[in-house]
C-alpha cells in the first residue's frame, strides 16, 4: 500500500530525528548553525546589478535590470520594483520547464515582501518625471542548485545584487527620456535578511539542507532589518506551537544580525 | 490609546462583526458563508473523493487542496479573471495550513477539494476565507484535530490594531495574518509584511491568538445552529399535529433501516460523521423535544445507539473533532474508501443490492448527497470495518 517514497522518507526522517536528539545533523552542523555563505557580485555584464549567492551547496543567481515605465497612478512620484523567481529545471530533478509552479510563486512573493516592506530601496529616488516616467527595477532570481532553503538564499542574492546595482542616468530631450552611458548606484536604506527555521519532529533547526527540507513538517521564515521585522511566512503541512514561533523569531533576529555584518564586510557596506 | 484612531470608530482590539453560516449550499458536501465586516466569502467542500489527476495521489494520506479565488467584482477595480500570483500563493498556504489539522491519514489516495470564493473583499480576506473553510470542512464531516480560526492584526497609526480593514491595511505600516487552533495551540498559517518592532510583533501575535479563541466559538455556534434549525423544523410539524410526518422525518433522518422514501424538501441533510464521539448518555437532549407519539421509534433508536457506542470503544478515531452533534444521527460516514478490497469486504446481501455503479455515483451515495436512510448505502459497520482494514494495511 505504502509506496517506496513514503517508506524511504519515513526511514530518513527517523534517522534525522535520531541525530537531532543529540544535536547533530547530516552535514555535521548543530541545530542552530547556518551553512557557509559566499557572495559573488557583478557576474553579468548586461544586467545593471547581479550576484550569485552560495548557501552551502545551494546556489542562486540574481539579476537586476532597470527599465523606464509610467508610475502607478496612486504613487505618481515613486518608482517600482518587481521580484520574479524561476525554479530553473537545471537546478533540481524535481523541477519541470513550464509556467511557474505554486512554490516558485510563493518564493518570489516572499522575497518581494522582504525587499519591498523593508523599504530598503528609496522608491522616490527612482522617480524621473513625476507622474510620467520612473525607473522600474526588475529583480529576477533563478535557482542554480537547489540543496534546500532557497528562501534565505533568494533574499541574500536579491539584496547582494541590489547593493551593487548601478542604474543608468537619463537624459531628457524634448520630453523623451532615454538612458545614457553614465551610471549611478541606488540608495539602500536597510538590509533585509531572511532566516528560515524548520520543524522536524519536536526539533527546530535553522537552514535545512535538502534532505532535511524534504522531510520537514513545517518551516517559518522571518525577514528582518536592523530595526524591524519586515516579512514572515509559515509553510509546510505541519504547524508551530505559539511559543515555537516566538523562539524562531528571536533566533532569526540573532542570526540575521550576524549575517548582515558578514554581508557588509564582504560588500563594503555601511550599516549605520 | 484613543478610540478615534481607527476610521470606522472601532476600539484598537475590537473585531468587526463576524457572521458565519453553514450548510448554505446544497450540492457540496459541506459549505459555509462568512461575513467579516464587509468581506463576503463562500466556501464549499467536496470529498474525500478520488484524486484527479491520479499521479498526485498520496499512498498514505489525502490531499487537501484549497482553491482561493476572488470574483472580478470583489475589489475596487475590475479584477482580471485569471488567477493572480497572490491568489495562487494564498491557495498554497491555506492548503498547507488545513493539511495540518485535517486527519488526512484516514483517507489515503483521495482528495479533499475546497473551493473558496471571495465576493467582496475589504482587508483580512485570507483569514475570512480560512474561517469559511474551517466551518465548511466541519459541515462536511471531515475529521479534524481542531477547528482553525484566523485573523489579521497589524499596525495602523503606530498602534497595534486587531482585524485591519481594507483602508487600514493600505494606509497602515504592517499586516500579520495568522491561523491558529486554540485547543492544539498550533499556528498553521503565518504571514507578515510591514515594519514591526519586536514588541509590536509580540503584542500583535498574542492579540490575534486571543481573538481567534472568540472566532472559533462563533464557528462552533454556527455549526450548532444548523442542527437547532432542524430541531425547530421538527417542532413546527409537531405544532401542526402532523404526527405521522414527524415520525417519517425522524425515521428517515435518523434511522438507516427506514424504508420510507423521504422527500427532498422535508428531509434535512445531515453530514455528521462523528459517530464515535457520540455519547449515548447525551442523546435524550435531542429526543426530549420530540413529541410523545414518537416514542414508538425508541427501541430502534436505542438499538442503534448501543451499536455505535460499541464501535466508539474499538475505533481509534474517538478524539476526532467534528461539529457538535445534538441529535442521534446514525447515517453513514460521508466517506467510503473506494478500494476494490472494500467492495469485496462487504457482506453479500448489501453487495447484491448495490448496482455495479460508476465510482462517482458510488461516492455521491455514500456522501449523503442523495436522501439518506436507503439500504443501498453502506451501514456504519461496513464503513468502520473498512477504515480499520485500511489501517491494518498501512501498518
Structural key phrases:
heterodimer, A: about 270 residues, alpha+beta, Ribosomal Protein S5, domain 2, 5 helices, about 30% helix, elongated, B: about 400 residues, five-stranded mixed sheet, four-stranded antiparallel sheet, 11 helices, about 35% helix, about 20% strand, globular, disordered C terminus
Average pLDDT, all residues of chain A: 92
The sequence of SSEs of chain A as H and E is HEEEEHEEHEEEEHEEEH
Approximate strand percentage of chain A: 25-35%
Which structural class do you get from the secondary structure elements of chain A?
Answer: alpha+beta
The level of helicity of chain B is 25-40%
Number of domains of chain B: 2
CATH fold description of the largest domain in chain B: Ribosomal Protein S5, domain 2
Distance between the termini of chain B: 58 Å
Distance between the termini of chain A: 59 Å
CATH class of the largest domain in chain B: Alpha Beta
Q: Radius of gyration of chain A, Cα only, in angstroms?
A: 20 Å
- Going by helix content, strand content and strand pairing, the class of chain B is alpha+beta
Determine the CATH superfamily of the largest domain in chain B.
GHMP Kinase, N-terminal domain
CATH architecture call of chain A: 2-Layer Sandwich
How would you sum up this structure, described in words?
The complex is a heterodimer of chains A (272) and B (395). Chain A has 272 residues and is of the alpha+beta class. Chain A has one domain: 2-Layer Sandwich (Ribosomal Protein S5, domain 2), CATH 3.30.230. Chain A has helices at residues 4-21, 102-117, 150-163, 210-215, 242-267; strands at residues 37-41, 49-55, 58-69, 80-86, 127-129, 133-145, 166-173, 176-185, 193-200, 203-206, 218-224, 229-235, 240-241. In chain A, the strands form 3 sheets. In chain A, strands 1, 2, 3, 4, 5 and 6 form a 6-stranded mixed β-sheet that branches. Chain A is elongated and about 70 Å long. The N and C termini of chain A lie far apart (59 Å). The relative contact order of chain A is 0.17. The mean pLDDT of chain A is 92. Chain B is an alpha+beta fold and 395 residues long. Chain B folds into 2 domains: 3-226, 2-Layer Sandwich (Ribosomal Protein S5, domain 2), CATH 3.30.230; 241-394, no CATH class. Helices cover 37% and strands 19% of the residues of chain B. Chain B has 11 helices and 9 strands. Chain B has helices at residues 85-99, 125-139, 166-171, 198-239, 243-254, 284-287, 298-314, 340-345, 348-353, 359-366, 380-394; strands at 18-22, 30-36, 39-50, 63-70, 110-120, 149-156, 159-162, 174-181, 186-196. Chain B has a 5-stranded mixed β-sheet with strand order 1-2-3-5-4. In chain B, a hairpin with a 2-residue loop joins strand 2 and strand 3. Chain B starts with 17 loop residues before the first strand and ends with a helix. The chains are: A alpha+beta (272), B alpha+beta (395). Chains A and B meet through helix 2, strand 11, strand 12, strand 13 and helix 5 of A and helix 1, strand 8, strand 9, helix 4 and helix 11 of B.
